[in-house]
Structure formats: structure tokens, C-alpha cells
Write a structure and sequence with these properties.
Layout (H helix, E strand, L loop, with lengths): L8 H6 L4 E3 L2 H13 L19 H13 L6 E5 L8 H12 L4 E2 L9 E4 L30 E8 L3 E2 L2 E4 L1 H11 L4 H5 L2 E4 L10 E4 L2 E4 L2 E4 L3 H11 L5 H14 L5 E4 L6 E5 L4 E4 L2 E2 L9 E8 L11 H4 L18 H14 L4
Parallel strand pairs: 1-2
Antiparallel strand pairs: 2-13, 3-16, 4-16, 5-13, 5-16, 6-15, 7-12, 7-14, 8-9, 10-11
The protein binds fe (ii) ion.
The site of fe (ii) ion (FE2) has 3 residues, from loops.
Length: 353
């Protein structure tokens, strides 16, 4: 397996080793387990691997796809997850249950949710200080999510739009440096990243570079919305050169050369390595009927297979050690039940506490 490659969009188009399809056996097991535990959909911490049991062969189908995100392109797509055969509650349980075999779920918001619904909740408030894009229908700036891996389980597609965009930021960076060596320091200088209206350790923003590499610890982040809001919170003024550079980067990231575009279909699971891929989504239009509206369930996982991170990531991820507990929403206190779940998952998966 090659390590990360400097791929561009045509590479992903021509080499589909990152696309997997679940076997009939795996689908049947998932449906059976999800139906058996659907009454626990609102109390996910009661579902462990004994409750949601999968055979080693089925687990292997998921871990093989997950492994792919730690090398090569940093992305995997699993097709065939049961969407039409399951109720919404069963689908939630199936998402949580299959996630148990891949990593430790991390909280995604101030409420401490481990599964979040990616759908239009009627809010268009994405570009405000504490606006979060996942519950709007807006087009999003390129960004990363705050965990080793982000998984999107697609339950319903949009009527139109909602295209998922993924880009290798290192290929964009390389292109920009080649074009003009003066771009190199713009990638490694510090930018104020807003924490989205929340405070961690008394701070509303972090000063962080876009790109950093220390040996194997190589990672990239960007989010223009958060940088602009962070500048307001920090009382900083970003220069016109800085803003121009950020938008130039984002435009290239969305261009045909660098951006791979895909429509997630019902039953697709997209898995992204957040350190090597930046992602976005186009605006979408929903169907009118409530149960036909675009609906994805998002899971943030901490992985045993995770890579080391550069020093500056310590502040936002809580740990830079490979295979350790890190990531997730950082300004909330997790209760004793999550602590117990975390210990059990760490022991089973070999994640360091
Ligand atoms: Fe995201």
C-alpha cells in the first residue's frame, strides 16, 4: 500500500481502489442487529459490541475501508449500507453499531452528541460566528472536521445539489509554491481559527498554521469562515494579501484539477482522513416530503491507526500522539457513562487513553 500520494482529481477518477461494496452477508447482519437494538436509538451508550454483534468477516469489510484512509488517497467510500430497509431509528443504531468496530466516537457539539444529523434544519446561518454548516443547505467553505476520521452515512439524497467535494490540500499547496515560492510562508504562518462561538481554556480562537510537517506528522487545515471570525474575535486584521491567498487556495481546491466531486447516494458511507483531505459541499434543494429530505448521519472517530500530528495540533486535538484519544468537541465535560464506554473501546481497539 503506498503512503499518501500527491493525488489530484483525475487520479481518484481512474483508480477506484478506494471504493468498496458491502457483501450480502454484511448487509444481512447489519439489518438484523439494527432491528434488534432499535429501541436503544436514543441511548446509544447502551449499545456495545456484544449488543450489536458483527462477524469477523463483516468487521473486516469496514476495517479494510478504514485502513485505506490512512494511506493512499485518505478517502474511502463504502457502498450498499442498508438505507431503505431500515427505519430512521434502525439506521441510527446501525451507524453507531458499525462505528463501534472502527474507532472511538467523539462528541461533535456542545450537547455532546456522538451522531449528528446532517440535514437542512431550516437555518441558513452558516456564515455567522457560531453557525455550523451541517444543519443548513448552504454551500460550505473547504474545511476539515475535528477528529481523526469523519464518516458520513447517507440515508437520503437531496432532490438536487448537495455534491460532496474532496481535495488533497498538499497537491494544491505544491502547485501554489511552484507557481510562486512566496506562497510557502503563507501556508505556514499563523491564522486565527475561531472556535465557533465557544471557549476552550478561556480562548475563543487558536492561532494555527494551515500546513505543518514534522517528519511523519504532516497535516493540513483550512476554514476561511472560521479564520475571518477568528480575526474579529482576536481583534486582528488580515491583510489583503492574506485574504487573497486564502481565497486563491480555496478556488484552486474547488477547481476541476484538484477537486473530486461525488454525489453520496443512499447507502453510501464516505470516510475521510481529516489530516490529508479538505472537504466541502455544494448547496442543495430538498424534496418536500419530510422523510425524503436529504439526510446523512455523521460520526467522528478517533482511530487506533491514526498518525502522529505536528505540535501545533495539540491545542485543538488534545493529543498529538498516534493512536491516542483525541479530537472531538473540546469544551464539554463528558459523563461517567462515556468514560466507561471510552475505556472499553480503547481496550478493545488498542487506542491509548
Ligand atoms: Fe465537515
Amino acid at each position: 500500500m503506498p503512503s499518501f500520494v500527491n493525488w489530484t482529481a483525475p487520479d481518484l477518477e481512474s483508480d477506484k481502489r478506494w471504493v468498496f461494496r458491502l457483501s450480502d452477508r454484511a448487509i444481512a447482519e447489519i439489518v438484523e442487529q439494527a432491528r434488534r437494538s432499535s429501541h436503544l436509538a436514543d441511548d446509544l451508550l447502551r449499545i456495545d459490541r456484544k449488543t450489536f454483534h458483527l462477524s469477523p468477516e463483516t468487521v473486516k469489510e469496514f476495517t479494510t475501508a478504514l485502513e485505506m484512509t490512512q494511506h493512499a488517497y485518505g478517502v474511502s467510500l463504502i457502498k450498499g449500507f442498508p438505507a431503505r430497509d431500515l427505519s430512521e431509528a434502525e439506521f441510527r443504531v446501525a451507524t453507531w453499531g458499525t462505528g463501534l468496530y472502527m474507532g472511538l466516537a467523539r462528541p461533535q457539539n456542545v450537547a455532546g452528541d456522538f451522531l449528528t444529523d446532517v440535514r437542512d434544519a431550516g437555518s441558513s446561518a452558516y456564515r455567522v460566528v457560531n453557525g455550523r454548516g451541517y444543519n443548513t443547505s448552504s454551500e460550505l467553505d473547504f474545511h476539515i472536521d475535528s477528529a481523526d476520521a469523519v464518516l458520513l452515512y447517507c440515508r437520503r439524497e437531496a432532490r438536487s445539489g448537495g455534491e460532496s467535494l474532496i481535495t488533497n490540500p498538499f497537491s494544491v499547496a505544491q502547485h501554489l509554491i511552484k507557481q510562486n515560492p512566496d506562497h510557502a510562508p503563507m501556508l505556514t504562518q499563523l491564522y486565527p481559527f475561531s472556535l465557533g462561538g465557544y471557549k476552550v481554556d478561556g480562548k475563543e480562537h487558536y492561532l494555527l498554521p494551515l500546513m505543518e510537517q514534522q517528519g511523519d506528522a504532516c497535516a493540513f487545515r483550512i476554514n476561511i469562515k472560521n479564520i475571518k471570525n477568528g480575526a474579529i474575535q482576536a481583534g486582528m486584521t488580515l491583510s489583503s494579501e492574506e485574504m487573497e491567498f486564502l481565497y486563491k487556495f480555496q478556488d484552486l481546491a474547488g477547481s476541476d484539477r484538484f477537486c473530486y466531486r461525488m454525489y453520496l447516494q443512499e447507502g453510501d458511507i464516505q470516510i475521510l482522513n481529516n489530516f490529508h483531505i479538505i472537504h466541502s459541499r455544494t448547496a442543495f434543494e430538498d424534496f418536500d416530503e419530510p422523510d425524503r429530505k436529504r439526510h446523512l448521519i455523521r460520526l467522528w472517530l478517533c482511530l487506533q491507526q491514526s498518525q502522529p500530528l505536528p505540535e501545533s495540533w495539540h491545542t485543538s486535538f488534545g493529543s498529538i500522539e498516534p493512536g491516542s484519544v483525541r479530537g472531538g468537541f473540546r469544551n464539554i465535560a463528558l459523563d461517567a457513562r462515556y468514560e466507561a464506554h471510552m475505556r472499553e473501546q480503547c481496550e478493545a481497539l488498542g487506542i491509548r487513553l
